[in-house]
Amino acid sequence: MLDISAIELQLKAKQSELEVRLRNVNNDLQRKSGPISQDFAEQATEVENDQVMEVISQETEAELQQVKHAISRLKKGEYSQCEICGGEINHARLKAIPYTAICISCADS
Predict the structure, then answer these.
(1) Which domain holds residue 58?
(2) If both were cysteines, with which of 34, 64, 68, 94 could 18 make a disulfide (CB 3.0 to 4.6 Å apart)?
(3) Dihedral pair phi/psi, residue 101, rounded to 5°
(4) What DSSP character marks residue 49?
């Protein structure tokens, strides 16, 4: 049996964690901690770092949307129902990936 209250707390904690991460990454990308270096070699390193930070930002945003979607599904009573086949998502899978919306069979397809 799923403990819906515990899952909701876990998802909301994950949402907060991701929002903080996203804010920090975006602050770094907007150079709120300081301007770009005047040294050419250092600029090249900073540009490479920016590219990595951009990917982290995109991945964090995608994960955050999945978490928000899971919270919405939880409130609608659809949390453990696969969005593709309509079957039940295994509880072990939900414990491992609490923001998944599809069962393992559909994920493997």
Answers:
(1) 4-79
(2) 64
(3) -120, 5
(4) H
How many degrees, rounded to 5, is the angle at CA 2 between CA 91 and CA 66?
A: 65
| Among 28, 32, 24, 27, CA closest to 49 | 28
Q: What is the tally of structural domains in the chain?
A: 1
Cβ count within 10 A of residue 78: 14
Ranges assigned E (strand) in 4-106: none
Q: How far apart are CA 16 and CA 58, in angstroms?
A: 16
Instruction: Please write the tens of the pLDDT for every residue from 41-80.
Output: 776 777 788 899 999 999 999 999 999 999 999 999 999 9
Question: Is 56 within a domain?
Answer: yes
What is the full DSSP assignment across 81-109? B-TTT--BPPHHHHHHSTT--S-HHHHH-
